[in-house]
Amino acid sequence: MAEYSAFSLLANALKGNKDWKPAWRKPDPKASYDVIIIGGGGHGLATAYYLAKEHGITNVAVLEKGWLGSGNVGRNTTAVRSNYLLPANTRFYEHSMKMWENLSHELNYNVMFSQRGCLNLAHTPTQFDDYARRGNAMRHLGVDAELMTPAEIKRLIPALDISSEARFPVVGGLMQRRAGTARHDAVAWGYARGADRRGVDIVENCEVTGFLRDGDRVTGVTTSRGDIRAKKVAVAVAGSTGRVMHLAGIETMPIESHVLQAFVTESLKPFIDTVVTFGMGHFYMSQSDKGGLVYGGDIDGYNSYAQRGNLPIVDEVMSEMLALFPGLARVRMLRSWGGVCDMSMDGSPIITTGPLPGMYLNCGWCYGGFKATPASGWTFAWTIAKDEPHDFNAPFTLDRFHRGLVIDDKGQGANPRLH
Amino acid sequence: MLITCPYCGPRDVIEFTYQGDGNRERPDPVSQNFEAWNAYVYDRLNPAGDHNEIWQHSGGCRAHLRVVRNTLTHEISRVAFVRGDHGSAARPKAEDEA
């Protein structure tokens, strides 16, 4: 397997880059494994990597319906942050943030993690007070947070309209300096290579069509490439969780699937060197290292498994962008795309044993799954290996709704389209 | 996406507000059946295909509508008023679609 180093880059450059080896094998699936992970996205691949690395479980297959990283890990807007209010979320996402800070070294793969900061803009004094509360909650748990004044914000983002003529004047903001962005594809590829070289089989173009059962117990899966048995079957198919659970005979879940659209403009010279979010509507933007502005807004707001959206949200996101950055009015949009999100009933994820014996479930990431990738894989691997949650994911059970222990960071109630 | 309101005719989706899953049946308000309330609040069918849902024509006649929409294609196969749409609180049956 290819290792990346200054020497290997130089040696391959001198040889015309013809000797690079594929980053992962293309094995045929075996008849049985210790663990099958359904879903070759960021979370599934990270889970396989940490199963092998942390728990020595290497007889593992990752089954991916399409090609590796073709789902949500390739469709997000790459932002990474841990600016949550509730302790369960803050601890979990801060653990993820600490893993991000070392991920390129850990994987020997440049995931281009860039701590350029994430700024939430406030447009009313009440909202500013709310951000102060969140910032204090974060700092209580050792996460960095600072309030910024409009003048400081203007110095940070000169193109931002903070004038009193703005449709929603900026009264301040909450900044997390350690937040930022990462190269989403590299995260998938880095975890894939790391898992592969520890013995994990990554099987692409292998669609799971059903579950093998012994009574209630899940003992494997049927796939488009034959039946595969396993002692443990883990599901990490964000967006398609409803569909895959239907295959297992589970009719209802505390989840709705919604589509989230994202957009990128043509490449510009350096324009903004942080992630900025608009608190009056729902808009967030950063600039990629290629120069395109990467941005998005709300989900479309009605159930959808279509990996495409509808025009009203495009219209809304553009108008929000121009409310903040009037100077972008003539910049052309290059591409838009849609990803399907598991919107859970409290806006928080589910990482759990069950719902059937022999099954493990990782879902409900709403539209914030990318930043969670390292901690999600790490805690899910722990849960699979030990049949119990780690402290970090103990609150994120499937039965928390039933037990009245929801983790509702935005306080929207059981209303998935509002989380 | 166009929704054909029975009063107003085909209108752009921006005139409508999504009110959520139309399969849910609210238990009797005096009921203390915990499981029924829990299912009503938290459990969803979330099908990949035809989905029974409630929309309001909030930018038009303001009627509440029961819509059957395909979640894979956005294709709408049925629109009816919620009021008077007896017996359709249950999820769509084969004969409903015929």
List keywords for this structure.
A: alpha/beta; eight-stranded mixed sheet; 11 helices; 26% strand; B: 98 residues; mainly beta; four-stranded antiparallel sheet; two-stranded antiparallel sheet; 34% strand
Structural account:
The complex is a heterodimer of chains A (419) and B (98). Chain A has helices at residues 6-14, 42-55, 87-101, 103-107, 125-140, 150-156, 184-196, 241-247, 311-324, 373-386, 400-403; strands at 32-38, 60-63, 79-80, 118-122, 146-148, 172-176, 180-181, 201-203, 208-214, 217-223, 226-235, 255-267, 275-278, 283-287, 292-303, 333-344, 350-353, 359-363. By secondary structure, chain A is α/β, with parallel strands linked by helices. In chain A, helix 2 (42-55) packs parallel to helix 7, helix 2 crosses helix 10 and helix 3 packs across helix 10 (373-386). Chain A is globular, with a radius of gyration of 21 Å. The two termini of chain A are 42 Å apart. Chain B is mainly beta. Chain B is globular. The two termini of chain B are 23 Å apart. Chain A binds chain B through residues 240, 242-243, 246, 251-257, 301-306, 310, 312, 345, 401-402, 414-417, and chain B through 1, 12-14, 18, 20-21, 38-39, 41-48, 51, 53, 69, 71-74.
* Estimated helix fraction of chain A: 25-40%
- What is the tally of beta strands of chain A? 18
Which chains have the largest interface?
A-B, 26 and 24 residues
What kind of sheet is the major sheet of chain B? 4 strands, antiparallel
Structural class of chain B: mainly beta
Structural class of chain A: alpha/beta
Kindly report the average pLDDT value of chain A. 95
From the N-terminal CA to the C-terminal CA of chain B, the straight-line distance is 23 Å
Task: Write down the secondary-structure element order of chain A.
Answer: HEHEEHHEHEHEEHEEEEHEEEEHEEEHH
N- to C-terminal distance of chain A: 42 Å
Strand content of chain A: 25-35%
SSE topology:
The complex is a heterodimer of chains A (419) and B (98).
Chain A: H1 6-14, E1 32-38, H2 42-55, E2 60-63, E3 79-80, H3 87-101, H4 103-107, E4 118-122, H5 125-140, E5 146-148, H6 150-156, E6 172-176, E7 180-181, H7 184-196, E8 201-203, E9 208-214, E10 217-223, E11 226-235, H8 241-247, E12 255-267, E13 275-278, E14 283-287, E15 292-303, H9 311-324, E16 333-344, E17 350-353, E18 359-363, H10 373-386, H11 400-403
Chain B: E1 2-5, E2 9-12, E3 17-21, H1 34-42, E4 50-56, E5 64-70, E6 76-81, H2 94-97
Antiparallel strand pairs in B: 1-2, 3-4, 4-5, 5-6
